[in-house]
Amino acid sequence: MELGTLISLTLYFIVMLGIGLYAFKESTSDMTEYMLGGRTLSPKVTALSAGASDMSGWMLMGVPGAMYVSGLSSIWIAAGLTIGAFLNYILVAPRLRVYTEVANNSITLPDYFENRFEDKSRLLRVISSVVIIVFFTLYTSSGVVAGGKLFESSFGLTYETGLYVTAGVVVAYTLFGGFLAVSMTDFVQGCIMFVSLVMVPIVVLFEVGGINEVTQQISNVSENMMSLWVDASTGQALSAIGIISLLAWGLGYFGQPHIIVRFMAIRDVKDMKVARRIGMSWMIVSLAGAVATGLFGLAYMTKTQGGIEDPETIFIVLSQLLFNPFVGGFLLAAILAAIMSTISSQLLVTSSSLTGDFYQAFLRRGASQKELVMVGRLSVALVAFVAVLLAYDRDSTVLTLVSNAWAGFGAAFGPLVIISLYWKRMTFAGALAGMITGAITVLIWVFADLTIDGQPLSAVIYEIVPRFIVSCIFTVVVSLMTAKPKETICDTFEEVEREFDKV
Q1: Which parts pass through the membrane (predicted)?
Q2: 31 in any annotated domain
Q3: pLDDT in tens, 45-86
Q4: Does residue 259 sit within a domain?
Q5: Residue-level pLDDT at 477
Q6: Under a CB-based contact definition with an 8 Å cutoff, are residues 403 and 458 in contact?
């Protein structure tokens, strides 16, 4: 490893750990502080924290890799995500911030579901917690896989060593600093990612010789590479259902606990508009940079007759070839930032479910705040350990792992979150039916040995689409078939409406 690269990465690690130490001293005295930062996040930290925790290693590895292989047709995913993120800020963010505070100061999503429907059986809490633990462990594993690939391809270390280094640093600042450390490191990491995703494609563009030369080199690979309607990797035209599947990634936003928890933590709902503007600007520029990195990288490799074994490492390869070691180290830190920002958020959300939704709810109802924080830290370490074990399957692609977890969350919680925030008539039975039937739909779509015209169901249409539809239908139908919600639930809903109207 070059000395300059080593220095850049060392400084990055020191900053991350320093933030963790600061947060440890400032905001880890009780569960609300450890898991939600005391609801004190500023708009800029909220926005970049939500963005950085969302755009994990798949944005610097998965998206450029998809563009490198499939061409411009993969841009439909980026379009769907942009639309979904914007609607999430409009439809979910402000109402969820108000509702979670009014509904008994809910600090986790399962906590909100239980308080929203006054669920004495605690079924909603248990089922949603299980979904969070299972899918986030898988999601966290995708980040660790990305870290392993980074250290292997860039530093000559073994894949397994990369897993341990990635997980170790993230666990250190997350375990001690809690939500505030995660949010502050996300802010710094978001800035690093933004600069890198602007810098790399611009430099590559000049190296290749301008946009016309880029277009020519890409066309030399395949005339379909610059087509929005044809998947260049297969040569097949995208069907309407195929485009819907790619756009449907945006549906996942409404149910991602590690993203919407940022909305719950912002200091004032009135700050949400500023957060939306910052967050969407950051996202649009960053996604455009990721798309350009894949396409421009293909043009550069074609012109120089270079080659790469794994298309998902194109950002890494470009950072090593075109920049001096100090800058290259900064760019590699951007990938680590993308990976770590998401892992830390997922570890904390999973820890909050294990601690609040299982340990406190069923094992130690009278546990002190100090004890709960300790259990939360142990949970962070436990989930990280399991994620590393799962990551030993090095053949898993980052985008595939994220795709499965994203669909699981978006489908499990998305309809439930939206309908619960806008429809007073929604009942506990409707919520339970929507969550269960949607989860079953996803499992059938992914794992059942069923085909349409010889293709598996997940290859026909992204599983989040049928799951979202099924969940909405069952939620509404079952709610209408069961008794109206209790008067106290309706009163809380109306209180939220009044508070929201003030804003």
Answers
A1: 6-24, 75-92, 123-141, 161-180, 187-206, 237-261, 282-302, 314-339, 372-392, 404-423, 430-448, 460-481
A2: no
A3: 888 877 777 776 667 777 888 888 888 888 888 888 899 889
A4: yes
A5: 94
A6: no
d(CA 96, CA 30): 22
Beta pairing partners, 230: 237
For residue 397, pLDDT over 60 is answered with no
Give dist(CA 314, CA 334) in Å, integer. Answer: 14
Number of domains in the chain: 1
319: domain CATH number is 1.20.1730.10
More confident residue, 236 or 442: 236
Please report where in the chains the tokens 């508070």 appear, as a residue: 499
Question: Which tokens is 192 given?
Answer: 């690093």
Q: What's the predicted TM-score (pTM) here? A: 0.82
Looking at every residue in the chain, the average pLDDT score rounds to 80
- DSSP 8-state secondary structure symbol assigned to residue 41: B
Q: What is the DSSP string of 130-146?
A: HHHHHHHHHHHHHHHHH
Range of the domain at 263: 3-26+41-502
Most confident stretch, 51-55, 104-108, 301-305, 387-391? 301-305
What gap in Å lies between CA 446 and CA 408, rounded to an integer?
10
- The DSSP code for 234 is T
| Residues 269-278 pLDDT 10s | 888 899 999 9
For residue range 375-384, what is the model confidence (pLDDT) as tens digits?
888 888 888 8
Q: Which two tokens stand for residue 455?
A: 């293709």
Who contacts 167 (Cβ-Cβ below 8 Å, separation ≥6)?
144, 147, 343, 384, 387, 388
| Helix intervals (H) in 28-62 | 31-36, 43-54, 57
CA 93, distance to chain mean position in Å, is 16
Any domain includes 442: yes
Closest CA to 430 of 472, 464, 391: 472
**Sequence letter at residue 61:** M
Measured between alpha carbons, how far is 125 from 107 in angstroms, rounded to an integer?
Answer: 12
Residue for token pair 């080199």? 217
Q: Quick check: is 35 in a domain?
A: no
Confirm if 39 and 271 have CB atoms less than 8 A apart.
Answer: no
Longest dimension (CA), the chain: 70
Q: Residues 291, 63: contact at Cβ < 8 Å?
A: yes
pLDDT value at residue 478: 94
Alpha helices, DSSP H, located in 107-122:
109-116
36 within 8 A of 23, measured Cβ to Cβ: no
